[in-house]
Amino acid sequence: MTARLTARDLTLRYGDRIVSTRLRLDVPDRAFTAVVGPNACGKSTLLRAFVRLLRPAEGGVTFDGREVGAYPAKALARELGFLPQDPSAPEGVRVRQLVARGRFPHQSLLSSWSEEDESAVVSAMTAAGVAGLADRPVQELSGGQRQRVWIAVVLAQRTPYLLLDEPTSFLDIAHQYQVLELLKRLRDEGRTVIAVLHDINQACRYADHVVAMRDGRVVAQGVPGDVVDAALIKEVFDLPSVVVPDPVTGTPMVVPSL
Fold first, then answer.
1. How far apart are the C-alpha atoms of 223 and 205, rounded to whole Å?
2. With contact defined as beta carbons under 8 Å apart, do 219 and 55 qualify?
3. Domain boundaries, the chain
4. Which residues of 154-192 are buried (b: 16+ CB within 10 A; e: fewer)?
5. For the chain, which residues score pLDDT lower than 70?
6. pLDDT value at position 25?
7. Which residues have C-beta within 8 Å of that of residue 53, sequence separation ≥ 6?
8. 3-79+159-256 maps to which CATH number?
9. Strand-strand pairing, 17-28 and 217-222
10. How many Cβ atoms from other residues are within 10 Å of residue 106's Cβ?
11. What is the number of other CB atoms lying within 10 angstroms of the CB of residue 92?
12. Which terminus of the chain is more exposed, N or C, with fewer CB under 10 A?
């Protein structure tokens, strides 16, 4: 697996608080990478650095060999689509209007709304399962419905890379798996997906590549079947467990042994 998106000797901090030190990571191209680890280990911070919402204190992030900070904002947004953990919608905005904002990187002062823009919005709402909510105010929706609307916003961007911070948050179990199946399908279509996931078993089932983090560092990375075992779960999550084959997929399945 090749890498277009890379982090090199990355030190990240918020003020005086250092989150990561000299972190190195290559994101496999056209693969589904799941980033896992305990709360406050630096997963979300890493994604923010990838899309230059956080400037590294040291080191850098490159896309196609170029520092992400050197890209014009719209040019980078046409390559990297990002769903943050807690997005907020303007008051009164309706679902279709919000999803249409995903087309902003493709707009200019001289361009008008195109058939491609309309197709991207309709396709994104359909894929995320919110087409029937198109005329509803976003603020009237449940947390799970809003989460799927935000996924549609990112899909409407039609970027080759999708970076999603906890995309299954607020979703019931059926919708969690529907979203993960969607991400897998996008991977199969040639997209690169990087998602922060809390459920290690979901990560093992759906991801080609798992990145396990703790205390701002990458503890292990690779194909789930190669790296996920009881020793890793103990080191990363401080959780005693037994790792057995998933009865459906054969991928690693973590069973706590408390």
1. 11
2. no
3. 3-79+159-256, 89-158
4. bbbbbbebbbbbbbbbbbeeebbebbbebbbebbeeebb
5. 1
6. 96
7. 82
8. 3.40.50.300
9. unpaired
10. 17
11. 9
12. C
